[in-house]
């Protein structure tokens, strides 16, 4: 079955779209294994036949509404009031604003587009290097899928039969740690290069006015997590609440979202959602084919033959995911590797919730790692810089995120203490 994986990678390098590459590889494997082709329809459909997965298009729609509804602008303004006076103030604002928006959108690409569209031109106008501005927003946008609500965590929760509420809580501390690490780096650069922020620190009154303006946007993740943990609503119902909440804020409170804008918003979210679900369907078929040929068991035996120590297992998982994340998108990689690594990790004594956070952080780092690096493509287009020019300023930011990944991997309580605290464990 190694040749199937080789074929998949060949199709990736030929730049065949991920979903089609997975589908073609699966079809070839089925044809050569003399399996009834009705499996294609059965397994592909079973991959998306989940009520919980309805939350994904709902959160995508909520993110689109928030992007055009004036929410990102208010979060940027509030972040600027908090840290704009510090060295490299505008760069700090970029990281903090991405963190705020992460708690609303659940998507790294949405973060990069919404916050980058506002702050990258502003940073360039203030004299920041285009490459630095572009890579910083891309790096900060990786916080999006880690801090709840998170689209990858919803998918992992469905595939691993893990509480999505626990996953959301487990992502809070690693996400904040990623933000703090990037902000510390920016502050160091600002001090070293004498990059000044706003001349005057915002007054308490200005901060309170800014908080009032952004409060309703910041309240959404509290409502979602609180509703989850209290059992008021499910993951899917939380997606509905997010959409309705975003509509109310955008149309009636901020009054920047008009009825005429809704068809475009609905179309863009429908295209994004269809792409994600198509990838999930084909990836489910591919992972079934791997399971049919006992690949997960063989992988487990291979890992055990190398070492039975949990830290070695986690190291191997990290290495594979970091490499895969450079050329496979997050949703595809998550759908492929979760069924492969979950039994291996649980055998080694790794908590499934902890594994979900490890996988999510790994794959979000892949979103800023060439050659795929989709967040880099988004921010480089805004900054009008070549992707190759971004590699050098990206390296220290990437190193910070890798250090945090190591902490998340080998310090389980960093992720698990919140779910345990709230769950009373």
Q: Which structural traits does this protein have?
A:
single chain; 425 residues; mainly alpha; 20 helices; globular
Short description:
With 425 residues, the protein is mainly α. 78% of the residues lie in helices and 0% in strands.
Beta strand %:
under 5%
- Principal-axis shape equals globular
Mean pLDDT over the full residue set: 85
Order of helices and strands: HHHHHHHHHHHHHHHHHHHH
Unreliable residue runs:
none
The major sheet is characterized as: none
Number of domains: 1
Query: Helicity, in percent?
Result: over 70%
SS element count, helices:
20
Membrane topology: Multi-pass membrane protein
GO molecular function: transmembrane transporter activity
Keywords: Cell inner membrane, Cell membrane, Membrane, Transmembrane, Transmembrane helix
Protein name: C4-dicarboxylate ABC transporter permease
Structural notes for this entry:
GO terms for molecular function: transmembrane transporter activity. It comes from Effusibacillus dendaii. The chain has one domain (14-423). Helices cover 78% and strands 0% of the residues. The chain has helices at 2-13, 18-32, 38-48, 55-68, 71-83, 89-105, 108-125, 130-141, 151-160, 164-192, 204-230, 235-253, 262-292, 295-306, 310-325, 330-347, 352-366, 374-383, 391-410, 413-423. Helix 6 runs antiparallel to helix 10 (164-192) and helix 8 runs parallel beside helix 19 (391-410).
Please render the helix and strand layout as text.
Elements: H1 2-13, H2 18-32, H3 38-48, H4 55-68, H5 71-83, H6 89-105, H7 108-125, H8 130-141, H9 151-160, H10 164-192, H11 204-230, H12 235-253, H13 262-292, H14 295-306, H15 310-325, H16 330-347, H17 352-366, H18 374-383, H19 391-410, H20 413-423
């Amino acid at each position: 079955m190694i040749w199937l994986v080789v074929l998949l990678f060949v199709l990736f390098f030929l730049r065949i779209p991920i979903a089609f590459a997975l589908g073609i590889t699966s079809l070839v494997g089925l044809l050569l294994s003399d399996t009834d082709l009705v499996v294609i329809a059965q397994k592909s459909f079973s991959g998306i036949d989940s009520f919980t997965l309805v939350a994904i298009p709902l959160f995508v729609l909520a993110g689109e509404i928030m992007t055009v509804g004036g929410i990102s602008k208010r979060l940027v303004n509030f972040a600027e009031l908090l840290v704009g006076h510090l060295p490299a103030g505008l760069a700090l604002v970029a990281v903090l604003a991405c963190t705020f928006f992460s708690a609303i959108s659940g998507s790294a690409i949405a973060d990069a587009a919404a916050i980058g569209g506002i702050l990258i031109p502003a940073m360039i106008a203030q004299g920041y290097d285009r490459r630095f501005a572009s890579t910083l927003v891309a790096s900060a946008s990786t916080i999006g899928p880690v801090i709840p609500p998170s689209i990858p965590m919803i998918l992992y929760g469905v595939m691993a039969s893990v509480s999505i509420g626990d996953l959301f809580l487990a992502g809070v501390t690693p996400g904040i740690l990623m933000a703090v690490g990037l902000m510390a780096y920016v502050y160091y650069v600002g001090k070293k290069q004498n990059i000044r922020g706003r001349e005057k620190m915002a007054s308490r009154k200005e901060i309170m006015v800014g908080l009032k303006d952004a409060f309703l946007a910041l309240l959404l993740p509290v409502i979602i997590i609180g509703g989850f943990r209290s059992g008021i609503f499910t993951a899917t119902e939380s997606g509905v609440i997010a959409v309705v909440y975003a509509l109310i804020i955008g149309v009636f409170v901020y009054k920047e979202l008009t009825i005429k804008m809704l068809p475009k918003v609905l179309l863009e979210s429908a295209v994004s959602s269809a792409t994600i679900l198509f990838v999930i369907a084909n990836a489910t078929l591919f992972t079934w084919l791997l399971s049919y040929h006992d690949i997960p068991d063989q992988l487990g035996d291979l890992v055990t033959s190398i070492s039975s120590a949990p830290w070695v297992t986690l190291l191997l998982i990290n290495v594979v995911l970091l490499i895969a994340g450079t050329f496979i998108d997050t949703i595809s990689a998550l759908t492929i590797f979760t069924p492969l690594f979950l039994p291996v990790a649980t055998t080694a004594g790794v908590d499934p919730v902890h594994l979900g956070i490890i996988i999510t952080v790994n794959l979000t780092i892949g979103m800023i790692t060439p050659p795929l690096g989709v967040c880099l493509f988004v921010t480089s287009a805004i900054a009008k810089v070549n992707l190759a020019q971004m590699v050098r300023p990206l390296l220290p930011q990437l190193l910070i995120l890798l250090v945090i990944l190591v902490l998340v991997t080998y310090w389980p309580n960093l992720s698990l203490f919140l779910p345990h605290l709230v769950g009373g464990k």
